[in-house]
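Order emerges. One example.
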Amino acid sequence: MIVQSLIVGAMMVQGAPAAEPLAPTPIALIESQEDPAALLNLGVKLAEQGETEAARRAFEKVRSMRIDYTLETTDGRYVYPADLARDGLRMLDRGEFAQQRDKVATR
């Protein structure tokens, strides 16, 4: 204990840089998430950032989940998460997320 205290004290005197926390990778975020709504939102965010493979993985995970309830969409519809995930996958295949990003950039 005393040795550890001395080392910590010496590091503080020397001004050792504080270790910055590592940002989780998109795949780690997907693997740790079990909420379908959060996964769908993460998939959209990743797709908009150009992380298409990570987005695909998020949508596939939702599609494979056994969910017996619906989610309310921003336009007021109630849709099963698997259906929303299929829509996300179709949008990825068509490149629609990239098109939306281009539209935002041109405004």
Summary: Residues 81-94 form the longest helix (14 residues).
